Amino acid sequence: MLFALRMLLLSVHFIVATLAGLTVCILRPFNPENTPLCARLYALPALRILGLRVRLDPSVVADQPRPAVIVANHLSNHDLFVFGQVVPHRTVSLGKQSLKWLPLFGQLYWLAGNVLIQRGNAVRARQAMTQLNDTLHARDISIWIFAEGTRSHGRGLGPFKKGAFQLAINAGVPIIPICSNNYVRQMRLNRWHSGDVILKALPPISTEELGADDVPALMERCHAEMAACIAELDRQASSAPATDRNATPA
């Protein structure tokens, strides 16, 4: 019963948040502050509806260098709500061109200023990424990328795709890893307190003096640091006192 009620409330909230965000984006299209604002419109009410309690490491809400490429682990469709509350100012995300045609949400995603690429078209994807190199500096924005390219569903950090790391090196901007524990492993939406989420940002990884040949090493370093961080966050989440796990979500 609780699961069904949550899904109903979440669906209503998603529609309302989409309409509110779309109104903002129509009034100020492609403003780089649209994405952080809309992300919070989705995230903050949704986390209460889902019963997920989020613990933010101070590193996540600290000021981060900009421009930068932000790399996060991708777990489920709920990542919109989990990570939405910590999207930094003047940050946009990278998504598939096909998102643009989803009713309402696709138009919101596009008008919010996010970057859309055709993943099946290598030439156009490279052109979009090349244009983005200059855009990061010219507009003083950061870009959020799920480097795995697909959801892991709690199975652990998957292999990274090269795009985020090539972009960071070409643009000469740092990479900021942001990690979440594998919250989907313990999430039970039929319980009042459905699970714990812990978010942490790792120190920025500089790309200064790196070239195309350094992409594999950069990917390996980022993957290793994030995997170690996620494992530690999983331990912290699993060791939370039972009284905390059963507490009313904040």
Describe this structure in words.
The protein has helices at residues 2-27, 34-50, 58-61, 79-84, 105-111, 122-138, 163-171, 215-238, 242-245, and strands at residues 52-56, 69-72, 91-96, 115-117, 142-146, 175-180, 195-201. The protein starts with a helix and ends in a 5-residue tail after the last helix. The chain is α/β, with parallel strands linked by helices and 250 residues long.
Helix content: 40-55%
Low-confidence stretches: 243-250
Number of strands: 7
- Briefly note the structural class of the backbone: alpha/beta
Strand content: 5-15%
Quaternary organization:
single chain
User: How would you describe the shape?
Assistant: globular
Sheet having the most strands: 7 strands, mixed
Order the strands across the largest sheet as they lie in space.
Answer: 1-7-6-2-5-3-4
The topology string of helices and strands comes to HHEHEHEHEHEHEEHH
User: What is the mean pLDDT?
Assistant: 90
What is the alpha-carbon Rg in Å? 18 Å
Straight-line N-to-C gap: 21 Å
Number of helices: 9
Output the keywords.
single chain; 250 residues; alpha/beta; 7-stranded mixed beta sheet; 9 helices; disordered C terminus
What's the short story on this structure?
This protein has 250 residues and is α/β, with parallel strands linked by helices. Helices cover 46% and strands 14% of the residues. Helix 5 links the parallel strand 3 and strand 4 (115-117).
